[in-house]
UniProtKB/TrEMBL annotation:
Protein name: Gp58-like family protein
Coiled-coil residue windows: 80-107
Region described as Disordered: 1-36
PROSITE patterns: ICA
UniProt entry tagged with the keyword Glycosyltransferase: no
Key words, A-Z: Coiled coil
Record field: compositional bias (Polar residues): 10-19
Pfam families per the UniProt record, alphabetical: Gp58 (PF07902), Peptidase_S74 (PF13884)
Domain Peptidase S74: from-to ranges: 428-516
Species for this entry: Kurthia populi
Keyword Iron-sulfur: no
Xref: InterPro entries: Gp58, S74_ICA
Length: 516
């Protein structure tokens, strides 16, 4: 019997696409709907395979703990409703007190009119009662119901004081113009009012009801202290000239007035307003050549209410933004103009990613260039060089694409010190070049014309730094000299050496053929 041999083996793995793969690299052979928690980022980011690519998931903060969010919302709504109920209760109490006072006024007027007339009709004559033909009257009437004192004159002014067991009433009437002042004092209340027709100014104090003050205008001259809740449909505070005021009405507070201020070397003066409404606070200058407005809202700060960079807004600071990452607590600085970070002389500007990364990109991670001209004033010609100068106090410079590009294909990089690298690559793609042809020059002659020198740089220390071997630009052949006069082309010399080796090989081959 022949021995059986294994022709092939295989392994089949079954996975549940609802499982989450956790790690710094994506899982191999993903299936649609599979989730990957990328731990190489801080914080980790969640991706889902859509059948073609990994899609970053935007985290809705309300979905992280919906029960907690609902609890917070319900608690806020409950407290808001309790406040509304309290205000409604106060308004109801005020309406009830007003109605009670009006009813008491009618009851007291009717009751005292009846008892006053009863006292006069049943008066004791010994007390005296005098009436003159010219309309003057003066008298005192007393009965079992109480005591009445009355004085009147021809001008139809009448003052009456009524005392009963239940209270005291003082009334002064002008029958010509229909005005009257009435003060009623009972054991449980005091009521003072001045009335002309239907217009009443009144102060009513009751033990179990409170204090009711009514009038066409009420002036409080002096310090006013409110120990508990103060409820009013509208409050206005203004200066004596009415050129500045603060108004509180419903859901809006407005402050208006003239303001002058020095800001960054310029003087800004004019009428300003501050408005606080439900959802935002707005500050605006209304005249003086500057009519910009600044808005504060729960989402950020903006020079436009809609935070839209449409050319008329200076900028936006957005809080709890999630437009660039899945993190809902990001901070965005946006502007329709330039964004400027400016420090005073001698101060520094720091950017601290705290272990993260620094990007120059849009929301889709498309990278953009950085243009800068940094000058160190302690370095010679740093300002007049006319190019961007960068000084790094670091041992590592990393990039997103594993490449650092300075100046493009035609730019220059000047390094005054040593450069150490694992591999030096010269740009050499065909699509980057033109006028391509085989070099037929005599490289041997060029190399033979070079004067190889030994030298030191001016900063080198004699006896310590070893001398260098190389060319002097002033004596170098044109084939290896830099056209800008900054140095020699090392790579050019290398390729000339290669060409010279080719020439030598050709000569060796010719000699070998002749010998053979």
């Amino acid at each position: 019997m022949k021995e059986k041999r294994v022709k092939a083996t295989s392994k089949v793995s079954l996975s549940n696409n609802t499982d989450i793969h956790v790690g710094p690299t994506p899982p191999p052979f993903p299936v649609e709907g599979q989730q990957w928690l990328n731990t190489s980022t801080n914080p980790p980011q969640l991706y889902v395979w859509d059948g073609e690519k990994w899609v970053l998931q935007q985290i809705d903060i309300e979905k992280l703990d919906p029960d907690l969010i609902d609890e917070l919302k319900n608690d806020t709504l409950q407290k808001h409703q309790e406040l509304l109920d309290e205000i409604e209760g106060i308004n109801t109490s005020m309406d009830n007190l007003k109605q009670t006072v009006e009813e008491r006024n009618q009851q007291d007027d009717a009751a005292f009119a009846t008892v006053t007339q009863s006292i006069i009709d049943n008066r004791v004559e010994a007390l005296g009662w005098y009436e003159e033909n010219d309309g003057r009257i003066s008298g005192i009437a007393q009965s079992m119901e109480g005591l009445v004192l009355r004085v009147g004159n021809a001008e139809r002014e009448l003052t009456t004081l009524t005392l009963t067991a239940s209270g005291l009433r003082s009334e002064v009437n002008s029958l010509n113009n229909g005005t009257a002042s009435i003060m009623t004092q009972m054991s449980d209340r005091i009521n003072l009012r001045v009335q002309k027709g239907d217009v009443i100014s009144q102060i009513s104090v009751e033990a179990d009801k409170g204090v009711y003050i009514a009038g066409k205008a009420i002036y409080l001259d002096g310090t006013v202290k409110v120990a508990d809740t103060f409820v009013a449909p509208r409050i206005i505070s203004a200066n004596s000239a009415n050129t500045a005021y603060t108004k509180i009405e419903g859901q809006q507070m407005t402050c208006f007035g003239y303001f002058s201020n020095n800001w960054r070397g310029k003087t800004y003066a004019g009428n300003h307003s501050l408005e606080a409404k439900v959802g935002y606070i707005k500050m605006k200058q209304l005249d003086g050549g500057n009519t910009n407005a600044l808005y504060y809202s729960a989402k950020g700060i903006s020079t436009r209410m809609d935070a839209d960079n449409n050319g008329s807004a200076s900028g936006v600071i957005e809080f709890f933004a999630d437009g660039y990452t899945s993190q809902a607590n990001s901070l965005v600085l946006a502007s329709s103009g330039n964004i400027i970070l400016e420090s005073t002389v001698g101060s520094n500007i720091f950017i601290n990613p705290a272990g993260g990364s620094l990007y120059v990109s849009d929301k889709n991670y498309n990278m953009y260039d950085i243009y800068a001209k940094l000058a160190d004033l302690n370095r010679v010609n740093a300002v007049t060089a006319g190019i961007g100068n960068f000084y790094f106090n670091s041992t590592n410079i990393n990039s997103w694409s594993d490449a650092i590009k300075i100046g493009g294909t035609t730019g220059n990089v000047v390094i005054s010190g040593n450069m150490t690298c694992a591999k030096l690559v010269e740009t050499s793609k065909r699509e980057l070049k033109k006028n391509i042809q085989t070099y037929e020059g005599d490289a041997l002659a060029i190399i033979n014309s070079m004067r190889i020198t030994e030298y030191q740089y001016l900063d080198d220390i004699e006896g310590i730094d070893r001398p260098y071997v190389g060319l002097i630009l002033d004596e170098a052949p044109v084939e290896v000299a830099d056209t800008k006069g900054e140095g020699v082309l090392v790579a050019q010399g290398t390729w000339l050496n290669s060409r010279a080796i080719q020439q030598l090989l050709h000569r060796v081959e010719e000699l070998e053929r002749k010998v053979a």
